[in-house]
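Q: Hi! First time doing this. I have a protein sequence and I read that you can turn it into a structure. Is that right? Here it is:
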Amino acid sequence: QSAFAKKELAFAEDVVASGGWHSCALRPSGEVICWGANDQGQSTPPKGSFASLAAGKSHSCGIRPSGLLECWGSNSHHQAEPPDLELRQVACGAAHTCALASDGEIHCWGSDEHKRSSGSPSGRFVSIAASGGHSCALKKNGYAVCWGFNDNNQTDVPKVKFKQIAPGYLHTCALTLQDEVLCWGQRRGDNKPPPGRFKQVSSRGPFSCALDMAGRAVCWPQAEQRDDHFVHISVGGSHFCGVQESGRAKCRGKDDQGQSSPPSSLFKLPTKKTQPKSTEL
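A: Yes, that's right. Below is the predicted 3D structure, encoded as structure tokens:
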């Protein structure tokens, strides 16, 4: 029986998702709560239960427990019109959306500038991620493929095996099998990942953050470091939000749209506490 068979379908545990100026997170019931900018309806999710989330510049998407995807917010490039397929992970860029089907194939829609939608690779993959104008996916063997906007070589993936990949605005970061963060593409100032071992990395906009082995969020470049601990984080355009062991959400960064002011609700924790390794899917 295929590892991608319906009864074995494992959704990506993306329990919190930060977009351009908003964030969304899953409650233990599966209900989605969003905060921050809502000028396009990106912070007004549909009712009901979801299993996995993603947020783009001004749109958001969630996968229902049935595997069907729903999106809300900006639909300027049809990025909020998903195909009628059973999906297990979704990733939102600025104006495009990509998703991983239950058979491991990639489907993208929305803006096709720089082939950010039509340039998606064929074959089977175990995880997917997107940001501004490019997307990346991991194969089961740990090698990554990126496509879309490449003016800063952000889609030129080094021949290294990764366990997680995180595209940013004009750069891409990834977590190696040795738990180190490697980045490529545009470098602003000291935009170089810190040394050490990490268990998750997230990028969007011009900066990135990673969770060290103790769960502390380390961000770069020029980010003030604090001793906050998280089990899962997601970087937005100028902020990041994470879920802590207590189930509370905490955000840091700009708050001009309320994007760093999460409600006091309790939120869902990922079962494995980190992004799944490519070999676990």
